Amino acid sequence: MSTPTGATHGPGRLENLVSTWNSDGSRRWLRPRLAPGRFLNYRRIVGWTLILFFFAAPLIPINGKPMLLFDVAARRFHMFGATFHPTDSVLLMLLMLSIFLGIFWITAVLGRVWCGWGCPQTVYMEFVFRPIERFFEGGPTAQRELDRKGGLPLRRVAKYLTFGLVGFVLANQFLAYFVGWSDLIVWITEPPWEHLGGFSLVMVTTGLVVFDFAYFREQMCTVVCPYARLQSVLLDGDSLVVGYDQLRGEPRGKPKSRTAEGKATGDCIDCKACVQVCPTGIDIRDGLQLECINCTQCIDACDSIMKKVGKPTGLVRLSSTRNLREGTPRRLLRPRVLAYPVAIAALLGAMVLTLHSRSDVDVTVLRQLNAPFVVESAERVRNQLRVKLVNRDREAQKFHVSVEGVDADVLVPVNPVTVPPDGQTTTPIFVTAPASVIDGSCSVTLKVTDETGKSYTEEFELLGPTEEVRP
């Protein structure tokens, strides 16, 4: 595996070190040509299927809840019919670890297939924004001519206005994962001044989307995203990558020509079609590079050239670095390919067991921070607490709160406490007990009883002054 963009042509030139920079350090705008082919057709099917899924996920209900909704304000996540509250931190940790290991496993087997085929950055860039750009500005040659002339011609203004409209739609779609479509529709349909905060959030997100896809583009993959930097430890010699067959292609040259030493050239005719179609501006013939997102456009481009010159396709192909370098077959079964699914299965098994064993109700006792206790008299001490109740049932529940283990006066402003379906409520509770009983601290039990008589308990400590410091 080579380091970032191996500079095989003109070492020391800046554009060979960073594909989006010119030699003077200025931004080099990439205008990739579209290469029709079987992989592009497959990616279109996958891409538009994912776009439909991205829009539908916050809308499709499962068990009466959105398929995916990360309700940060209410502090609950809805994922495929299950709801996670802050008290489910262990479940969330197991789920996230399973997802990360799943990505590692897929990378070890299929390479960076996520980057080129599934990442929203690539999907929207290649199948939404670049087609819009080609519609208004034409192909790469026409776009470079507009770049050379500078200014903002009418068709480029029309492109940016369309980008803004599409960005507004995508911003709403993105925010739907965090606030839900019901709130978004209110923000959109009612006057902005009635929901200034929500309207501002939509407009800021729209601006970020347009900035990303109109200006930042491939730099999100090559500069910001850490995934490319991790590929050196996620991939091995048998992982599936897009690669150039040097054994077959070198030395490069026109068909039937010979090198200076009199040797026949390889199959690569040095047409640079693979470079012209690359969305990150690299030359795949320089070896595996962190900028490569496995979009397979270079494969479609090279295959079309090979057909024209009467050579077999596959000079650039999906293979392993071991196969491309040594010609040996790719090994499918190897330690990391077997270890990842075992670890994922263990994590998912632990998650299922935790889900099965968790209670329908969570009870958490929180102490008042500014005044843990108040001395009412020489004989009485009052503790003010907060009781947080989480109800995972699909219907609202009423809970009666009481304290056991000490002879105390218990005051709950509203008792029983009503907790909404799949929601949580925090209620204050005042416990006044004899100072002689507490004497510094005293263990008691908070008991929460639902309407069916089922009880849930939580142990906590009442605090108070010791006998030596009591008045």
Give a quick summary of the entry.
The protein is 42% helix and 19% strand.
What is the general shape? elongated
Quote the beta fraction: 15-25%
Write down how many β-strands occur, each being a DSSP E stretch of 2 or more residues.
Answer: 16
Going by helix content, strand content and strand pairing, the class is: alpha+beta
What low-confidence regions span 5 or more consecutive residues with pLDDT below 50?
Answer: 1-15
| Rg over alpha carbons | 31 Å
Query: Helical stretch count?
Result: 16
- Mean pLDDT across residues: 87
What does this molecule look like?
This protein is an alpha+beta fold and 471 residues long. The protein contains 16 helices and 16 strands. The chain has helices at 38-56, 89-110, 113-118, 120-137, 140-149, 154-179, 181-189, 196-216, 219-224, 227-234, 246-249, 273-276, 297-308, 321-326, 335-357, 435-438, and strands spanning 61-62, 65-66, 68-71, 76-79, 82-84, 241-244, 316-319, 361-367, 373-375, 380-391, 397-404, 409-411, 417-419, 423-434, 441-449, 455-463. The strands form 5 sheets. Strands 8, 9, 10, 12 and 14 form a 5-stranded antiparallel β-sheet that branches. A hairpin with a 2-residue loop joins strand 4 and strand 5 (82-84).
